[in-house]
Design brief:
By secondary structure, the protein is an alpha+beta fold. It has three helices and nine strands, in the order αβββββββααββ.
Length: 186
């Protein structure tokens, strides 16, 4: 009875060692984990060629990941109606230093942080000011009106500068980094 129990214990330990976790890919902001991925998770990132890749993680090694990359596009089917098509590129080995960017959070502000609100508001004010001045017969380029248009132009410029500074993705560098936490012994 003891040899059967010993054989069963050995088989269970060997089987558990075969199916151990391969690793975890972690996206960090300084020392804080932002997001993590394991095998068969979906990932989207910017490759070193500045191309955005997306796919399923098939394997995570000590310093690299293997991603089955694909693209989903909307195309017309045989009847002319739009349908979703998936094109698979195949397995691609990627070192974690080749990941240069991650998509930004969709909750990061958008309209307020990219300058669009300032540009739309100031352009609307200038249009309304010009329209009202022409409608009432007042001179458009009077000194009191030029000051108002100048302030609106300055607000538009601030919005434009803010849109140049805003990025919808996160660049890897001093603040953000990728790490692999190995799940294998040794």
């Amino acid at each position: 009875m003891r040899p059967v129990l010993l054989l069963f214990t050995f088989f269970c330990c060997f089987h558990a060692n075969l199916w151990s976790q391969s690793g975890i890919l972690v996206f960090k902001k300084k020392n804080q984990n932002i997001q993590s991925w394991v095998k068969d998770d979906y990932i989207r990132f910017q490759y070193v060629t500045t191309q955005w890749l997306e796919g399923r993680i098939k394997r995570i090694d000590k310093d690299s990941i293997f991603v089955n990359c694909y693209v989903t596009r909307q195309i017309a089917n045989q009847f002319g109606f739009p349908t979703i098509d998936t094109s698979w590129f195949g397995l691609m080995g990627i070192h974690i230093s080749e990941i240069i960017g991650m998509p930004g959070s969709r909750y990061r502000g958008g309209l307020f942080t990219n300058g669009s609100l300032l540009k739309i508001g100031s352009a609307g004010y200038v249009f309304l000011n010009l329209f009202n001045s022409l409608e009432s017969g007042e001179p458009v380029f009077a000194s009191y009106n030029l000051r108002r248009i100048g302030i609106a132009a300055a607000v538009f410029l601030v919005g434009h500068l803010q849109s140049l500074k805003y990025k919808s993705y996160i660049r890897m560098g001093k603040k953000y980094s990728m790490h692999v936490i190995s799940g294998q012994k040794g």
